[in-house]
Design brief:
The protein is built from eight helices and no strands. By secondary structure, it is mainly alpha-helical.
Length: 354
């Protein structure tokens, strides 16, 4: 049985490693393909800018919905499962989703900023800030202890996150220290620096995940590393794009969405679905034990009934033998008459008369 379990686990881990290598190849191919398509489009051979922009809006909206879904799942399930990693993941994607939503409103030209003419530039800062917060949060998720003895005060930490997020939005929107203007008035330098930091953080999260896998081999660690690979390739593609590269931008968003979806599946399985699966397996095992016990009870009952019938037959035979030993004719006299009574305590008796 032990060898079968080890073989099954090795086979499943092999599948997880195959998925990881597949995400690496898929990410590299996506980066190369997006750059080639944008180069062809830049030469005037493709004319699908309108559709590319529509894809951009759709993919960004989908990533926001996934981020908010992870947040709601983490917060509402914490009181039952008390998974600290899942809660940290939820807070991370709440902040990232809010920043993405602000970026998306600026992308459509609806966001209100102090300087309306800088809408496009400021919305880009919200995008890179969202990715930086996401990468930093993923590093924290990989480091934090999964199950803590102390219960976390969710309302306090969520209020603190709202305050920090509001401060970050104010800093990006108003740019009080003129840091976002960049060196020499070129804000792209700051954007590229932040994107490089995101890549470094995602690589660090991947290394921490591999370290966790060596400490406690679990297929979920490999799947997390696969999602980090997709997110890292998405950021590398965004960093490598030209200013007018709609297809590469859409591909980067698609890689990000797939990575977020994989993380959602990982933490849904690990944080929410797995306890119920284990409970269901324990229930099935208990029902199997109960059924086996019922079968044993029925078999023992039949056996005891058979033995009891045999014993009662022996008792009836012994009763007949005992009665046959009693005299049937009593002595008679002219002045004396005899009368007897034989009343056993049960079916048999231990007393006789002569």
């Amino acid at each position: 049985m032990r060898n079968q379990r080890f073989g099954k686990k090795t086979k499943f881990d092999a599948l997880a490693w195959c998925l990881f290598y597949l995400t690496v190849l898929l990410g590299v191919f996506s980066v190369w393909f997006a750059l080639q398509v944008d180069q062809i489009q830049g030469a005037g051979f493709l004319r699908f800018l309108f559709y590319a922009k529509s894809y951009h809006f759709f993919l960004e909206s989908a990533s926001i919905l996934v981020s908010l879904s992870i947040f709601l799942m983490a917060v509402y399930s914490y009181r039952y499962v008390q998974n600290t990693k899942l809660l940290a993941m939820g807070y991370t994607f709440f902040a990232s989703g809010m920043l993405d939503a602000i970026y998306l409103t600026g992308y459509t030209g609806f966001m209100l900023l102090p300087d309306p003419e800088t809408v496009s530039m400021r919305s880009g800062f919200f995008l890179v800030a969202s990715r930086f917060v996401c990468a930093l949060g993923l590093v924290v998720v990989c480091i934090v202890v999964e199950n803590r003895k102390e219960r976390i005060r969710t309302f306090f930490w969520f209020s603190l996150e709202i305050c920090i997020l509001s401060l970050l939005v104010w800093f990006i929107a108003w740019n009080p220290l003129e840091i976002l203007s960049g060196f020499g008035g070129d804000p792209s330098i700051v954007v590229h620096a932040v994107q490089s930091g995101v890549i470094v953080l995602l690589a660090a999260a991947m290394l921490v995940t591999f370290r966790n896998y060596r400490i406690r081999p679990d297929r979920l660690h490999i799947l997390m590393a696969a999602s980090f690979t997709l997110l890292c390739n998405s950021e590398i593609l965004s960093l490598s794009l030209r200013p007018d590269a709609p297809y590469g931008e859409a591909m980067a968003l698609l890689l990000k969405l797939v990575g977020l979806g994989l993380l959602f599946d990982i933490f849904y399985v690990h944080g929410v679905r797995r306890p119920y699966v284990l409970l269901s397996e324990a229930k099935d095992t208990l029902n199997q034990y109960v059924n086996e016990l019922d079968k044993q009870v029925v078999e023992r009952t039949i056996e005891l009934t058979r033995l009891n019938d045999r014993l009662m037959a022996d008792v009836d035979l012994a009763r007949d033998v005992q009665r046959s030993m009693l005299p049937t004719v009593l002595p008679q006299g002219e002045s004396v008459r005899f009368s007897v009574g034989y009343v056993p305590a049960d079916t048999l008796s231990g007393d006789f008369y002569n």
